[in-house]
Amino acid sequence: MDALIDRADVVAAAPNGAIAPDAAIADRPVVLAIADLHLTLTSAAGSVQVLRGISLEVAAGEKVAVIGPSGSGKSSLLAVAAGLEPASSGRVRLLGRELAGLSESALAQTRRGRVGIIFQDFHLLPNLTALGNVAAAVDLAGEKSGKAARHRAEEALRRVGLGARMDHYPTQLSGGERQRVAVARAAAIQPAILFADEPTGNLDSASGAIVEDLLFDLADEQGMALVLITHDARLAKRCDRVIRLRDGVRVDEAGEY
Ligand SMILES: Nc1ncnc2c1ncn2[C@@H]1O[C@H](COP(=O)(O)OP(=O)(O)O)[C@@H](O)[C@H]1O
Ligand SMILES: [Mg+2]
Fold it and tell me: pLDDT value at position 233?
């Protein structure tokens, strides 16, 4: 935690007063600041206002759940917040960097080694083993390469209980094991912020519980901020704060939660 706060890039993300953070987190640097975010997507069927004026701040080390019915814009919010999708209007500041107008390479540089993303459907590379998937991510993060990356990846896989599955390919793993590889891959780079989109949504309850505990333990150990999209009210309650979306609008602030 201290190491995280000492990082100049995170300190540079201190709130500029645009949105008042929760009192409990007011003394911590802000790792994600979203203000009046709009996202309009156009398909053959016409254009859809997916996000309509969302504002949100996440402090270093804070765990925020994002809940809401299917189609309410949760995954879209994650995509824009993580710089995977450009906003139509509004502001997104991730780890001190305004995302608007950044090139793909500048976005990748902003994310590299500092932003972890866990998708519901794992997104593992099928031609790499569990170890290969995690080591490639560590390598890409630019912190370590070759042997050092493998070593870090092995540690991460052992941490998620997959020490005996390192050389298995994704097709040789169960859903719960694959998701644990995805958790190891995201956590191995020790990001300042971790986004997870319904990480237990495709898992049976036993596997889901393991992945869930891992995420919270890792967030605590590493001082990561966690933005957790979930349908699970119990999981949401384990977070410091709950953001609720409906039809692309935040409704928790209006006391509807
Ligand atoms: N590429 C797209 N073009 C048009 N509409 C889209 C596109 N992607 C998602 N949407 C719409 O945006 C809304 C929010 O989707 P999503 O963010 O995936 O919701 P959630 O994750 O909460 O289920 C849905 O109504 C969905 O149909
Ligand atoms: Mg979704």
Answer: 85
What's the confidence (pLDDT) of residue 146? 87
Say which residues have a Cβ less than 8 Å from residue 195's Cβ, sequence separation at least 6. Answer: 78, 81, 82, 115, 116, 117, 118, 227, 229
What are the strands, taking DSSP E only, across 11-154?
Answer: 30-43, 46-59, 63-67, 89-94, 97-98, 115-118
Ligand that lies nearest to the alpha carbon of residue 67, given by its number in the listed order: 1
pLDDT, residue 19, reads: 42
Ligand 1 pocket check: which of 37, 38, 39, 41 to mutate, most ligand atoms within 8 Å of Cβ? 41
Ligand 1 pocket, Cβ-based, cut-off 6 angstroms = 41, 43, 48, 50, 68, 70-76
Quick check: pTM over 0.85? yes
Residue 162, pLDDT > 90, answer: yes
Nearest CA to ligand 1 atom 6: 41
- Domain ranges in the chain? 129-188
Residue of 138, 132, 123 whose CA lies nearest to 78:
123
Q: Which pLDDT value is given to residue 26? A: 63
From the CA of 66, the nearest ligand is 1
Higher per-residue pLDDT: 167 or 204: 167
